[in-house]
Write a structure and sequence with these properties.
By secondary structure, the chain is mainly α. The protein folds into three domains: 32-107, Dna Ligase, domain 1; 111-195, no CATH class; 207-342, no CATH class. 48% of the residues lie in helices and 9% in strands. It contains 13 helices and six strands. The protein has helices at residues 3-31, 50-59, 66-75, 95-104, 121-130, 136-148, 180-196, 199-204, 209-222, 229-241, 249-256, 295-302, 325-342, and strands spanning 40-44, 85-89, 110-114, 171-175, 311-315, 318-322. Strand 5 (311-315) and strand 6 form a beta hairpin. The longest helix has 29 residues, at 3-31. The radius of gyration is 27 Å and the shape is elongated. It starts with a helix and ends with a helix.
Length: 343
């Protein structure tokens, strides 16, 4: 072999060895990075081994390599000191943070708050205040500030609370020193994450995300259960298609109380009130969501049931749907008779 060839071969192996050393040195950093961008709940049960904990973290998308987590944990002696409990793994947590957490059984104090699907921002603020995290007023102010700092593509002039519909209803674990702004940011990011799953389908249906959330909120407030969400969504689209008034009581109630929805009973005279959310007076969708919808209602708004129903009224265990006004009138009379008997 010529001398020049020997030099090239030698150089190749030097570079290969250098790459191998570099990969070896970078591997710990790469493999010990946590991946999650949202707070993850880790349930460690009595008797769970380090192997089982690593599998749970891998399944939840927290760690890149369960094997590497076990390796590091064994080196640190974690496998001998695991304590059962429910732990909140914050974004950016290191392996050492998680090791300390599951060994000491302690973490920063957190408040667990559940927001039911269909809650308005006003109701969410009330629940936060009940739990001592922030005041309703501070929360609502924070939602308005968040809206001002974002680039939303809809007109908020007729809305009581511009962020209505844009905070995802779920169970959250907030650190007890969270500000109202931090709470809003967490909940808004969660809705963004949910909507990312449906944005392509909404675009295919020529529907803006604002329209999607508005329809989903109507479904959320009207449906008695999952079994009729798709059907109610179908009624909405059927009425819109023939330029018929939606006539949804839930939207009227929302508008009567400036988005607070304190009233639980609608009177006939309320249907004459001239406000933007009165779907008995104005055709088309209301100017924005009337509540914060959950995933099931969002999916129903994107996948309405195909039928020819135009009306529905409360019945036993749900709503009775009808295709024409005559049948609807009979269903209404049946409902009134049933209420009279119950009284």
């Amino acid at each position: 072999m010529k001398k020049g060839c020997l030099v090239v071969v030698a150089l190749f192996f030097v570079l290969l060895a250098g790459a191998a050393v570099g990969a070896f040195m970078l591997a710990p950093t790469f493999l010990t990075e946590t991946l999650h961008t949202e707070t993850v709940t880790l349930n460690v049960e009595e008797g769970d081994s380090l192997h089982r904990v690593s599998e749970k973290l891998s399944e939840k998308g927290v760690v890149r390599s369960a094997m590497w987590f076990r390796r590091e944990g064994q080196t640190a002696g974690v496998d001998r000191n695991i304590r059962p409990g429910e732990y909140q793994i914050e974004p950016g947590s290191s392996f050492d943070d998680i090791f300390e957490l599951i060994q000491t059984g302690t973490q920063r104090a957190q408040i667990r708050i559940t927001f039911p699907e269909g809650y308005t921002l006003y109701q969410m603020g009330g629940r936060l205040e009940e739990n001592g995290l922030t005041t309703r007023e501070a929360f609502l102010d924070a939602t308005n500030a968040h809206f001002e700092n974002q680039d939303f593509e809809f007109d908020a002039d007729q809305l009581f609370f511009p962020m209505e519909g844009y905070l995802f209803p779920d169970t959250y674990f907030f650190e007890e020193d969270y500000t109202a702004e931090q709470v809003v940011s967490v909940m808004a990011r969660q809705m963004e994450k949910v909507l990312a799953d449906y944005s392509d389908l909404a675009a295919e249906k020529d529907m803006t995300l604002h329209e999607l959330l508005t329809i989903a909120s109507l479904v959320e407030k009207e449906a008695f259960g999952d079994h009729e969400r798709d059907t109610i969504a179908g009624v909405i689209f059927n009425r819109l298609e023939i330029d018929m008034l939606l006539q949804f009581c839930s939207s009227v109630l929302y508008g009567l109380d400036d988005g607070k929805e304190l009233a639980n009973r609608l009177l006939y005279r309320d249907l004459e009130e001239m406000h933007a959310f009165n779907t008995y007076q104005f055709k088309g969708l209301p100017p924005g969501p009337i509540a914060n919808p959950g995933r099931a209602s969002i999916e129903a708004a994107l996948n309405p049931e195909s039928h020819d129903y135009l009306y529905f009224v409360v019945g036993n265990g749900g709503h009775n749907f009808s295709r024409d006004y005559q049948d609807h009138t009979q269903n209404v009379e049946a409902y009134r008779s049933q209420r009279t008997l119950e009284q």
